[in-house]
């Protein structure tokens, strides 16, 4: 009896890079963008539609730069581009990761939710990096009130042990976009993102930290609206969303989609050719182009929808 051909798992809906690698999933290698990110400005904004691979990209970067995971580099990255071309900064940072998608979008409770999320992540930071941080930092940090004061305390304390922080913020505008969807909340939204508003104060603190131990930031979202409103609060950030250099960093180009279909055609019983499948997918999942200079050339497929299609074919 013929044994079934072993094939890589289709990572539909998966956002954790380590799970993708350790579960032997099909991974479209985007690690060649790491040197480009390092050569770009250090405070990196990146806007893309939902379900376009932003969170998986952040996950890949977080683990690449995490000082605690140097011993896993070969296992997780060895067969990828960056495994053969590592950069000087790999595994050299303490990582703070914030996911604003979990912050409550109700205007009257978002501050408490933001504080709670940041406190959880800041405590995790203190626990996992205890060997690199001043003694007692966690207890003192928890005496501070709210995300703004706690972040201010953390980055200043890291000076004492000469540590560098890489700050990742995923879906930075998730809850503000929901607030903006309610016309009655427009004025309240403005008060939070301008002047002395709480969200504005948070990004003011991030900015202050970049003059100290916050050496890099990578921030993703789906809309530049909140970014524009916070600009003077974080005017050191550079928006690379429309840069041709990063047009293909998330999503799949057609070459990547074809390679995936060709691979699964050898391990699954496909009833259509790759060309036929591309013809079926293209009107629905293709035609994204984010850089004006790339218009008329490479277009991008929505990666989540491509994986869904292949998983359900």
TrEMBL record:
Domain of life: Bacteria
Domain AAA-ATPase-like span(s) in chain numbering: 11-231
Protein name per the record: AAA family ATPase
